[in-house]
Amino acid sequence: MGVNLLNDIRQRAKELAKTIALPEGDEERTIQAADIILREGIANIILLGNPDSIKELAKKYNLEHIDKAQIIDPLNYDKKDELADIMVELRKHKGMTKEKALEQLKDSYYLATLLIKAGMADGMVAGANAPTADTIRPALQYIKTQPGINIVSGAFVMVLPDEQFGDNGVMVFADCAVTPDPNAQQLAEIAIVTAQTARVIAGLEPRVAMLSFSTKGSADHPMVDKVVEATKIAQQMAPDLMIDGELQADAAIIPKVGAKKAPNSPVAGKANVLVFPDLQSGNIAYKLVQRMAKAEAIGPILQGLAAPINDLSRGCSVEDIVNLVAITANQAGIK
Predict the structure, then answer these.
(1) Is 193 helix (H, G, I), strand (E, B) or coil?
(2) How many CB atoms neighbour CB 21 within 10 A?
(3) What domains are there in the chain, each with its CATH number?
(4) Which of 27, 186, 246, 284 is 20 to 30 A from 78 (CA-CA)?
């Protein structure tokens, strides 16, 4: 199922024809991935990096399609002035000056982010060569979050061999990557954007379970209260969204347990989106399911930003980069 899902994601990306910036353009795995993306028509690519290094790598790996990419040298980019003006306008209240902006644009992560802000790119994938902060910091400063959303989170599409769970084995888990201890408002917003990810990336009609160690009042604790409040807020924010809580994990995904513990719930027993009460539980859960159930974990997919910017693991493969670019292009297609 995982292969089929990724093929679907790639095919949708081809149809969308989005432009994705790769600020690590002279990194070996990144340039190899770019060649595959350009060969298959998954996205248009902007490579940021030293042009001589990019040419040398293209020659070293016999890459035949890199000439289809737009190559930008952060140290010699002829549109830096107009991007610097945008930066000053957005952050003059923080003391940003033209001189500081021009200096910051020598950093390929900032330059790629400003290309998105200026409408020259639709999204960005980075992180093969740098920590997550290098990817997210410029985005938080210049891209900001979606209207009505004030939190960034990370989702995983989980593809399980046992197809009785979710929709034919496909589920979405969040937040598994970014925010350690969201409050009720933040947790509600995570639920909303995770449902969006489920629709756009996994092709699911979301049925969202807000998870807890309690089901419908079976336990009394402030941690449960947070999930109850978050559920109410999410239901108010998106009244058409099928969402319920608080639910224990078994009540969320096992029909018999859901019917017994939450008989009137539209989600219990058939959830395909699981929203965890904090990062600790979400991260533990996805890793356990990945290892013990032999599930494929696709992600993390960053959510909540006003434009799609995704972070790679520094141990990523060429194929991981290709897939994350396809996912980013799909996110860029959200209307």
Answers:
(1) helix
(2) 29
(3) 2-144+307-332 (3.40.50.10950), 153-298 (3.40.50.10750)
(4) 27
Give CA torsion, residues 13, 14, 18, 23, to 10 deg.
Answer: 80
Q: Which two tokens stand for residue 123?
A: 């999204």
Q: What is the pLDDT of residues 196-220, one digit of tens each?
A: 999 999 999 999 999 999 999 999 9
Single-letter residue type at 279 = L
Per the CB < 8 A criterion, the answer to whether 319 and 159 are in contact is no
Residues in the chain predicted with pLDDT less than 70, given as ranges, are 1-3, 335
Count the helices and strands in the chain (H runs, E runs): 13, 11
Tell me how far the alpha carbon of residue 139 is from its chain's centroid: 13
131's tokens = 């920590």
With residue 16 as reference, give the H or E element that holds it. Answer: helix 2-16
* Gap between the Cα atoms of 252 and 209, Å rounded: 6
In the DSSP assignment, the letter for residue 75 is: T
pTM (2 d.p.)? 0.91
Residue 180: Cβ within 10 Å count = 9
- Interatomic CA distance for residues 4 and 9, integer angstroms: 9
What separation in angstroms does the CA of 303 have from each of 34, 327, 328?
23, 12, 10
Q: Is 312 exposed, middle or buried (0-12, 13-18, 19+ CB in 10 A)?
A: buried
